[in-house]
User: Which sequence fits this backbone?
């Protein structure tokens, strides 16, 4: 299909568009039951949801398949959640669903994931699996606190964190690239190494007292003039510097990866290293650089968590976020914006799980499993299977 | 088994299967020993660098493992377990002493590590890297605590059998999810098992947490399960059951080693699993159903890990809390056990003893705090474990050591090149 025909097809209002509409209508069914619309009659989400399902079913009969079934599923989910919301008390609903606060806490929880998963993208795009993201994040979290404390400056904290993450990544790179070790074993080792090293030095340096309370923190960015719009103020008025940096990183990494020769080289090395070397690209150099960069970025994500958000360090404080970042990377199909979208989704699920505690503690805990279930569904190929770089995980032997 | 070493098309390095085949052939006991010695050496450097005495530290760890008990010979009058008979014996088995108590704790850990190690090993022999031992272990423990704490009036043997059986099946089920996804849609087992680990972690935290279905009904402020009832507790034979005595699960774990060896080396299933592990394409060409073997291998792995969870719950823990799930990493140590033990029955048994001793020797219970703070030592264990994994994973390193060994007839001197990359 030529480009022009594709554009025309996109503009045409066919069954695919109806299916997309169905998904949106299904989401609306839930949305209408929430503040600020807050319809209290269960019939509202029910009717709206049914319209969405109808759109989906119509599209299914026209042979649209997956997307249309998605519309049906979203419609059913919209009805269920919508009716559930109308049954809950209005006060609770307002506590859980305050959109501005929800957006800002989604961004807070998504930012460490964004940093780490974009880091992971560089590593995996160059053909080196990085299970060690978790460890590199943890290293960043600890050494960020150490640096910020010893130099009394959050910027130095970030620098020290980046160096520490880079060092851990270099170890991984050395074993994965130079020694052609199994990358998954190596990554697992990095995770344990970081857990041990950060725990050891945390106790060695700070003992029982824990990290100091007067730690210099990464500042928030106050945006003046937003006070008038409550939603915008709540959502974006007081965000941490690192959150804004993560947006910049997102755009820069997209441009670098897909619009520059550097990115082309990284991708070439990850897809077909022999071909890349034949045209004069140094496979080892590209891989070393990419893996090191991934460690630096993951460590910055960890440092945001400790120096930016929490303001202290405790043992194993990343608690599996590196693995969620890995999941986001896979969910986002090894692309920056895909990974970012997945990070937002996972961040939102964390943010929601804290707020859902208003309804039920135990349900909120169970909700934390959501990112992992979603990723499992994604790799199972239900929603279009992610395609990893062709030679990821295979060591390369120079000739 | 002689398999052709496949060449390297497109400049790609050897696959997991080829590397695995190499592990099985090369080195015998020498390279794992070098690996472990090197890891302990580097751990000692960290201890030294932070101003402690590594020799005293390792001596204290050694004493904490209880293995020094074996070196105290004598003539003692001991009671035979489960009877009132008293006989002469060369070692004092009175578990009130420090060394025998430490040893019993080490063996408790060894029991579980053997099983989580086998969980990784069995899948590895089929060319699958099962990182999900932890999740399978938690699943087994959850089911064991559920069965063990309900149905109070069941006959003792039946109750234990049922609890173990269901725990094994649960472990097999969660592992088989990864196997199925690998067999049907080709999803990488490393990704799926990691995700399943965290699903088990959060489902377990939910089930045992406040208001969860498995939480005890007596004190709802404590996120811990009900206690396992008397009829589901495994018999203990060494030590005081109130202080975590050694239970018959130790022999079950040793039996599991034998079962592992028999399945792999004396059954058609084992032959097929190994064939798939060496080279899935060749196995498929030879008429072996590769997909089915992936599912079976993962399920059997899950049985081992689930059994490990059941042993801990029914043998000495008797209850499970949210905190237990969140701090436990015995399934992950199983990876190091399996790789250090080269995925063989004997190797896994010895590696499990090593790591069991290390974990217990550096625990708050085992280590003398006046010599070295146990809080630091726990992290030292993690580092040593990480270094073992790093060195074991580097097959080029193993190869270098191995060829060097042949050249000069001894392995030790080839080790130093490794340290360049590992000092961090």
Assistant:
């Amino acid at each position: 299909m030529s480009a022009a025909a594709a554009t025309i097809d996109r503009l045409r209002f066919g069954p695919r568009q109806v299916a997309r509409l169905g998904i949106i209508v299904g989401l609306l069914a839930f949305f209408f039951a929430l503040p600020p619309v807050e319809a209290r009659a269960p019939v509202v989400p029910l009717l709206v949801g049914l319209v969405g399902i109808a759109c989906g079913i119509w599209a299914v009969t026209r042979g649209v398949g997956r997307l249309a079934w998605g519309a049906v599923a979203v419609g059913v989910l919209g009805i269920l959640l919508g009716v559930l919301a109308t049954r809950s008390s209005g006060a609770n609903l307002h506590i859980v669903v305050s959109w501005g606060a929800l957006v800002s806490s989604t961004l807070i929880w998504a930012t460490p994931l964004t940093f780490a998963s974009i880091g992971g993208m560089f590593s995996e795009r160059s053909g080196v699996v990085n299970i060690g993201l978790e460890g590199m994040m943890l290293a960043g979290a600890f050494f960020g606190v150490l640096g910020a404390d010893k130099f009394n400056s959050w910027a130095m904290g970030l620098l020290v964190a980046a160096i520490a993450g880079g060092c851990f990544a270099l170890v991984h790179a050395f074993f994965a690239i130079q020694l052609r070790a199994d990358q998954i074993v190596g990554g697992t080792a990095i995770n344990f190494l970081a857990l041990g090293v950060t725990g050891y030095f945390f106790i060695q340096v700070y003992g029982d007292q824990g990290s100091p309370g007067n730690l210099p923190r990464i500042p928030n960015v106050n945006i003046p003039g937003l006070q008038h719009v409550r939603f915008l103020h709540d959502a974006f008025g007081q965000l941490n510097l690192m959150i804004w940096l993560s947006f910049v990183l997102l755009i820069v990494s997209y441009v670098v990866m897909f619009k520059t020769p550097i990115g082309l080289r990284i991708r070439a090395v990850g897809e077909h290293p022999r071909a890349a070397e034949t045209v004069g690209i140094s496979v080892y150099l590209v891989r070393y650089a990419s893996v090191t960069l991934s460690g630096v970025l993951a460590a910055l994500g960890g440092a945001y968590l400790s120096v930016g958000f929490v303001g202290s360090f405790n043992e194993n404080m990343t608690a599996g976020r590196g693995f969620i970042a890995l999941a986001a990377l896979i969910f986002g199909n090894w692309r920056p914006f895909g990974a970012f979208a997945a990070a937002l989704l996972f961040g939102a699920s964390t943010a929601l799980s804290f707020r859902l505690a208003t309804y039920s503690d135990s349900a909120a805990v169970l909700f934390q499993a959501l990112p992992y279930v979603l990723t499992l569904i994604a790799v199972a190929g239900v929603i279009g299977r992610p395609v990893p770089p062709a030679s990821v995980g295979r060591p390369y032997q120079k000739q | 088994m002689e398999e052709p070493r496949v060449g390297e098309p497109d400049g790609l390095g050897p696959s997991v299967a080829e590397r695995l085949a190499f592990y099985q052939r090369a080195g015998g006991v020498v390279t794992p020993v070098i690996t472990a010695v090197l890891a302990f050496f580097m751990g000692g450097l960290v201890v030294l660098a932070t101003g402690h005495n590594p020799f005293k530290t390792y001596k204290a760890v050694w004493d904490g493992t209880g293995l020094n008990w074996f070196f105290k010979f004598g003539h003692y009058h001991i009671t035979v377990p489960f009877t009132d008979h008293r006989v002469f014996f060369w070692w004092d088995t009175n578990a009130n002493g420090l060394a025998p108590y430490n040893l019993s704790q080490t063996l408790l850990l060894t029991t579980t590590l053997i099983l989580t190690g086998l969980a990784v090993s069995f899948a590895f022999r089929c060319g699958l890297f099962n990182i999900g031992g932890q999740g399978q272990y938690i699943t087994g423990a959850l089911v064991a605590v559920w069965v063990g704490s309900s149905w109070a009036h069941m006959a003792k043997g039946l109750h234990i059998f049922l609890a173990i059986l269901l725990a094994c099946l649960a472990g097999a089920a969660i592992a088989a999810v990864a196997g199925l996804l690998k067999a049907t849609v080709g999803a990488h087992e490393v990704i799926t098992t990691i995700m399943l680990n965290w699903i088990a972690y959060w489902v377990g935290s939910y089930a045992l947490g406040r208001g969860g279905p498995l939480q005890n009904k007596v004190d709802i402020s404590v996120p811990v399960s009900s206690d396992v009832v008397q009829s589901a507790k495994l018999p203990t034979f060494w030590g005081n059951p109130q202080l975590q005595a050694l239970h018959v699960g130790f022999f079950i774990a040793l039996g599991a080693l034998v079962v592992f060896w028999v399945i792999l080396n004396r059954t058609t299933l084992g032959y097929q699993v190994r064939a798939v592990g060496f080279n899935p394409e060749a196995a498929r060409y030879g008429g072996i159903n590769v997909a089915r073997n992936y599912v079976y291998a993962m399920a059997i792995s899950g049985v081992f890990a689930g059994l490990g969870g059941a042993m801990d719950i029914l043998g000495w823990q008797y209850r499970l809390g949210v905190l237990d799930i969140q701090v436990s990493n015995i399934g992950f140590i199983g990876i190091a056990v399996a790789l250090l033990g080269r995925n063989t029955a004997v190797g896994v048994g010895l590696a499990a003893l090593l790591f069991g001793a290390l974990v217990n020797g550096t625990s708050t219970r085992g280590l003398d705090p006046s010599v070295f703070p146990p809080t630091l030592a726990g992290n030292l264990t993690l580092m040593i474990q990480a270094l073992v994994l790093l060195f074991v994973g580097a097959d080029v390193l193993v190869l270098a050591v191995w060829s060097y060994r042949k050249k000069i007839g001894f392995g030790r001197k080839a080790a130093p090149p490794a340290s360049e990359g590992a000092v961090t």
Summary: The radius of gyration of chain B is 22 Å. Confidence is low (pLDDT under 50) at residues 1-12, 410-424 of chain B. Chain B is about 65% helix and 5% strand.
